[in-house]
Amino acid sequence: MVNTQKFISQAIEDIRTAAGNEKVVMALSGGVDSSVCAVLAARAIGDRLIPIYIDTGLMRKGETERIKTLFGDIHLLIVEAGDEFLGALKGVTDPEAKRKVIGERFIRCFEREARKPGATCLLQGTIYPDRIESEGGIKSHHNVGGMPLHMEFTKVIEPLRDLYKDEVREVAGALGMPKEIQHRMPFPGPGLAVRIIGEVTPEKVAVIREANWIAESELVEQYHPWQCFAALLGLGTGVKGDNRIHGWIVAIRAVNSRDGMTADPLNIPFDELTRIGSRITSEIPSVSRVVYDITAKPPATIEYE
Ligand code: XMP
Asked: Measured from the CB, is residue 301 less than 6 Å from ligand 1?
């Protein structure tokens, strides 16, 4: 990107022109892309922007509260839909089917809420790698906001469509957004569901949410990975106290990357890894084993499904 300030004024101008006098809805996830979009659009059209945050029940610990605090001054619609999503995911084990169920449910929720204010324009935080990966058919549903809507919008506005992630972060900085958003790791639209192998159940979500919280709190500040998280691989045998148990196997993944298209595992000192592993098994009694993922992308993807 040649000039960040120039990009910002042009994007604001373009959003204003595209929206005209209409209302604009968007799905706000709280990640850097949608947050930057929301700030640009709020500057362009003020209250005519209606950001909708859907709590899918697959979000990280504290995420919904964080959004409420961060966007306190923007008129934000919060939709609690956890039961709806977990209900729809019952019995679904295939990774692509899971993504489809979540994507479709998301769109249904979004449409339901978006109809209420009578908006005619849709704002999306699609960035360049999202377009490349979904055009290449690598994932059937890469960006939740990118699913086909059954609603008629006169316009779809994508101000970040030509930017890479690091450029979006630059824009966030130039907009004076909190460092916390600026350096926020990417978090996938389908949320914790792509970090659970097989069926998504409330129990598995609760376990991985807690493990992910620990992994992030141990790794983000200390190692500044491009992305890190915990994933739930399945059940394995373990010993707790005097008993053999069938406990959850948690994988920790921490990678460096430029844009998520390729990635390298982070070199974390072994002592640190064993300490974090012990912390996870002691704080989450149903976890019996923790492994560290040493695979690059390719051949592995960053997420597990
Ligand atoms: P993968 O797993 O494909 O991930 O190596 C590359 C980057 O994309 C994120 N990701 C997604 N983001 N919807 C999203 O919005 C998805 O379905 C999705 N799948 C992966 C992933 O977290 C990583 O940053």
From this structure: yes
Residue 79 and residue 163: Cα distance in Å, rounded? 29
- Summarised one tens digit per residue, pLDDT across range 55-109 is 999 999 999 999 988 888 888 999 999 999 999 999 999 999 999 999 999 989 9
Measured in whole angstroms, how far is the alpha carbon of residue 234 from the centre of its chain?
22
CA–CA dist 3, 209 (Å, integer): 39
Distance of CA 36 to the CA centre of its chain: 14
Q: Which residues, listed in sequence order, are joined to residue 256 by a DSSP beta bridge? A: 264
pTM: predicted TM-score of the whole model, two decimal places = 0.88
Contact 77, 63 (CB under 8 A): no
Higher confidence at residue 150 or residue 227? 227
Summarize pLDDT for 262-297 with one digit per residue, the tens.
Answer: 999 999 999 999 999 999 999 999 999 999 999 999
Residue among 54, 167, 28, 57 nearest 112 (CA): 54
Q: Is 186 in the pocket of ligand 1 (CB under 6 A)?
A: yes
205 φ, ψ (degrees, to nearest 5): -60, -45
| Confidence band for 142, pLDDT divided at 50, 70 and 90 | very low
Tell whether ligand 1 has an atom less than 6 A from the beta carbon of residue 125: no
Provide the 10 A C-beta neighbour count for residue 31. Answer: 19
SS3 for 79-90 is EECHHHHHHHHC
Whole-number Å distance, alpha carbon 130 to ligand 1 midpoint, is 9
Q: Within the chain, what is the greatest distance between any pair of CA atoms?
A: 69
Distance of alpha carbon 140 from alpha carbon 144, whole angstroms: 10
Task: Look up residue 111 and give its two tokens.
Answer: 């449409």
Question: What is the distance between the alpha carbons of residues 26 and 34, in angstroms, rounded to a whole number?
Answer: 8
